[in-house]
Amino acid sequence: MSRFLLFILLFQFGFSQQNFHEAWYSADTEHLPQNSVKSISPDKFGFIWMTTENGLVRFDGKNFKTYNNNNRGLSSNRFLYLSGSIEKDSLKTFTESYADNIIINQRTAIKTTQNYLLNSFEEYENNRFYLNNTNNLQTDFFLSKIRTKKGDYYKIEKNRIILFDNKNNKKKVIEHQHKPNDDYFLLNDELVCLSSNGDYIIFNYFISKNNKLDLNNINKKIYNHLTQQYFICTNKEIYIIKKATNKLYLSLLHKQDKPFTYDIKCLYYDIKCNKLFLGTGEKGLGIITLNKFGILTNINSANNNYYATTPFLENTFLTSKGEIYNKNGLINDLKLNQTGNQFGIAIDKNQNIWIPENSNLVCYFHKTNYKTFKKYKFKSILSTIYCDSENKIWIGFRKDDAPLVSVATINANDLNSKPLFIKSLDEPVNFFVELRKDKMILSSLNKKIIHYDKITQKVTKLSSGKNDIRSIFICNDNKIWVCTYSNGFSLFENNRFYKLPIDKSSYLTSAHCIMEDNEGHFWISTNKGLIEVDKKNLLNYIKEKSPVYYNHYDKKNGFLTNEFNGGCEPCNTKLKNGYFVYPSLNGLIAFNPEKVNKILPSGDFYINEVEIANRILYFKDTLKVDRKNNRIRIKIDFPYFGNEDNVYFEAKLQLNKNDKWVKLADDRTITFTNLPPGNHDLLIRKLGDFSTIYKTKQITIVVPFLYYETLWFKIISSILIAFIFVIGIRLRYNYIQKKNIELESTIEERTRTLIKTINELNSTKNNLTKEINQQKKLIGTISHDIKSPLKFINIGINNLEEKSKNIDNIEIQKISNTLNNSSKSLLNFIDNLIEYSKIVLDNSISEDDFVDADVISSEIINLYKEIAISKNNQLNYKNLSNKKILITNKISKIIIGNLVDNALKNTENGTIDITIELKSNKIFLNVTDTGKGFTDAQINYYTTLFNNYEKTKFNFQNNGLGLYLVIELINLLNGDFRINKNNPKGSRIEIIVDSKISNY
Fold this sequence. Notes:
alpha+beta, Methylamine Dehydrogenase, Chain H, Immunoglobulin-like, five-stranded antiparallel beta sheet, five-stranded mixed beta sheet, 10 helices, 69 strands, 22% helix
């Protein structure tokens, strides 16, 4: 092994991608008001301030805000440099010729009347500014006073340097021979004197001799007096001077392959974020993110798309292409697997390399330095391979066109052994992992997770549901985690999947694979970058549904692509030196998780700015708005220079009890429209880094009530309404009382009138009773005086008819017969008329009046039978319902008799049919003849008479009395009356009345 290691070291060559990300902001990108950045510094809260020739600019990592004559009423926009104190939150600046003086306090710029004319301290800062912004400027710091952050100051004299406290008392004096070209500056409040040849002294360690910095090829020196950072620039590099063990040294911050194409005017290095801010004379602001991620590629290959990798010798790793890398780059290329896929690689205990090539498994032998190999051929394409602790190679296959597949194993200790197929594992396996020495866990392309006991050979298959598993990870405490193609990642415990929440941008929907660092953080690769999460956060979520913080890394951290690769085994590699290796679509990402600069959103946030009607207003804890402008936009200030995907803001306006937290968009603004009047609490919270703790702030939004919405207005209005109501009731009471008096008088008058009317009605009733009695007497008289003689006449005519039968004279027989029938009809008519009069006078029908219709019809047919025969007519009757139908006796006789009589009068040599039928609880009586029939005028007349009985006057001269009696009786029964023509001749009269049925 040592010989091979020496071999690969002798032939080491490599290429490592530059580990920085560069971003530029300028007037061309509409971020800056002008491209010349002259001075740059952070404030106490972490915001970056810079001066330009067209305004003062504040940068929070996302948004730029410009202060100029448009919003600060300045007479000039040409700013020079920043001075003052970061720690005391009192940065200062001024415009050209001190036309405007600005103080930067509480994250905003305020115009002040304070005069910033140069004093002895500001003279040093003024010289520093021009020294930074002008090339080859010679500045003499003789007699300069250089103030520390604590308020003490150094004074540079000809032969000495004196340290004074803030009360001008001498604290310390050292001998020093001043030279005009010497540079004096502070590092951590200690004075340093640096000569042009690199010699230097430190005030508190002046005894040290032979101190020197290598300043060869120096292009420019830039000092940021506010942050006390001293930078050395070459044409390709930027160094910063640091101090350690009382010595100074140059630390390389940034290096690029080509010379700088811009003039650097000012610099600021954010140590916490590992970012270098460059102010230039013509290109605007540049931000260089100095990353700790190494991007490894093979400079000799056009294809840097990587999948499976595995640890190799010492701190190297091997790709499935046969390339050997360490953390710095490629050291050898064994050129293995030139045509096969890259989805699997394994190294057995004997250092043999196993690589699948489609349906073949190739073993490259360590003893021949991987020049020779053995090939195992299979019928199915291999999907993955794995080497367990017993030096056994596990092989999974794709199903593809093969009807059946099973897992195979090869004993790597005996390369002559043949593959052994485990028939009980009849699944297309895509990932193996060894849980214990005796237990394997497998994932199937059929969405199953499989437990396999090596000793008992017991197989347990469980459905993975929606989890299309692409990798399985067993963490340090033996918990099992699975990553999927489309369902995020989950904890698999007690045969159950506990799905974890995904990040706010949903990058974790497709999770490739996981590794765990020494702090218990997971690093998960995705198609959109690398994500770090605290395992404790995940477990707390499963228990308590507490929030989870995800820290996202992408191309801004130096990656060549955001798309990491997965679906391979192993899908990541951990080296002995602590480095992690992940494959991507363009290169291998190698890093030590303990050294990665994590730009975390742990700082404070501020809410004191609102936009109303296109105007920016500022407030503290309470925001008062008017009702004219119903749309407000509250802005959150948060200085953060990392990935925006790592910032989690939520807000809740407490209007109701069930109000929920709402995630805010990346612009960090909250917009409200038409807020109801009142005092409303707005809660805004930010999730802390790698924790479940929120930092919450509250502001009160005061929306004034309109005058008619205020409490006093409602009280006064209620009192007024109550008063009007009482007055209205009183007026109404008086009105009703007056009306009652008038009504009582009216009632008395009407009562008298009513009594009079009742008396008149009683008198009328008595008269009517007398009249009815007289009519009854008249009817009785008619019955006695007319009906009795008619009976005797009828009897006489009947006797005459009987005797005429003995006379041999046919004419006399016919006349006597006709006289007999006529007298009977007349007598019947008189009976009907009398009965009609009684019915009308009594106006009542009793239960005893109802008789069988068949009986009544038979009586009438017998009565008119002779008349019908005399006119050569047939008289027929039929009950169509085949059941007993009850009809009124007297009324029905009158109705049917008159209808039959009328039909007989108008019919000769014809037929008269009487039918009765019961339908829908109605009686239908029809009398149909084949006689002359009714004319249209007669039908119209009788129909009108029936429909308008009370209004139509009956014409006795032109029309018979019989139908009139029929119509009046039908109206008395509330029935219906219809006259129709009978085809081909004759008439049909239909009468419909309510029935009284007796069922047998």
